[in-house]
Design brief:
Shape: globular
Strand content: 15-25%
Largest sheet: 7 strands, parallel
Oligomer: single chain
Helix content: 25-40%
Number of strands: 13
Length: 320
């Protein structure tokens, strides 16, 4: 099949595009810039690469027609964040492609109430990002149910992999958290330490998209959670991370007010956004419909990312 991947050189696309090429597909990667993929692969030599500013073309109303003109069988949209953008693409592709796959997010769910969260469950989302991802997923389901374009939405957790910083045990991206754990110093932890984070390796997300392409009829009109097999608590995550450096985690529980007083607003807000949701989702639907089997645990995925950061001198830690 001829497949267009929008956001092909991003976190997921860097692993997905080579997978699709190995599976025998003709692949067109659409990205806003010319940056290299996060992971090197010889398969990129066989990929058609296009530079398109989606935001500008969405504003001009030309993006859907540009994608439809590529004459593809499947479109995989990894970088759609608003309902109007998704609706425009559906309208432009209806009758022209056989399958549209959308990358959503587990932030389509609000704070965990009953865990693990299954598709169709969860509390209502909050915040623009989560609300829009939920609206898009519901629109796509209705589009297929009404006999229109065949669609599928996959909803990853906190995506990690080599080439970028992972969400850390405090639910933010502060690199000093890794240094503190590696040095065995006290780590100030807001809340109970029992809040959950649910990571997924980018290659496992890519695996799910590849499977969804191969089994379109099984997932037509469906939405599926795509994460590692298990979430991990803040406390468990911190203890695992410290052990990678031969240390034990020294956790110092503090109130959110105390945490905010010693943490930048950006990092504190990001921690709250992650930890208040405390997500733990079920991947049973993806297992049963697609045979989805993540190769990485949450901690394995994060460790893979940290190894890359340390090896490339992008993370300053006191020990290997």
């Amino acid at each position: 099949m001829r497949i267009v991947v929008i956001g092909g050189t991003g976190h997921i696309g860097s692993f997905l595009v080579p997978r699709l090429v190995r599976a025998g597909h003709e692949v067109v990667s659409v990205s806003r810039g010319t940056r290299a993929p996060y992971a090197e692969a010889t398969e990129w030599e066989h990929v058609e690469r296009l530079v398109v500013d989606r935001e500008a073309e969405d504003e001009a109303g030309t993006f859907p027609a540009r994608i439809a003109a590529l004459g593809c069988d499947v479109v995989i949209d990894l970088v759609c964040f608003t309902l109007p953008s998704a609706e425009a693409l559906v309208e432009g592709l209806r009758g022209h492609v056989g399958h549209l796959l959308h990358c959503g997010s587990i932030w389509r769910y609000g704070p965990s109430a009953v865990v693990p969260i299954v598709e169709g469950g969860g509390t209502p989302p909050f915040g623009e990002y989560g609300v829009e991802k939920d609206r898009i997923a519901r629109m796509l389901q209705q589009e297929t149910a009404d006999g229109g374009l065949v669609t599928t939405s996959l909803h990853p957790g906190h995506i990690v992999g080599p080439g970028w910083a992972p969400v850390n045990p405090l639910g933010n991206f502060d690199p000093d958290v890794w240094r503190i754990l590696a040095a065995g110093e006290p780590l100030r932890v807001p809340g109970l330490g029992a809040e959950m984070l649910h990571h997924v390796h980018a290659d496992d997300v890519a695996q799910a998209f590849e499977l969804a392409v191969a089994h379109r009829d099984r997932v037509a009109g469906e939405d599926l959670n795509v994460t590692s097999a298990s979430a991990i608590t803040v406390r468990g995550f911190a203890e695992a991370a410290a052990s990678w450096f031969g240390r034990s985690a020294d956790l110092a529980p503090v109130t959110w007010e105390e945490f905010r007083s010693t943490t930048s607003r950006e990092h504190a807000d990001t921690s709250w956004e992650h930890l208040v949701r405390s997500h733990c989702v079920s991947i049973e639907k993806a297992r049963s419909l697609l045979g989805y089997a993540p190769k990485h645990t949450s901690t394995d995925a994060v460790r893979d990312a940290l190894r890359w950061l340390v090896a490339n001198d992008e993370l300053d830690v006191p020990s290997p």
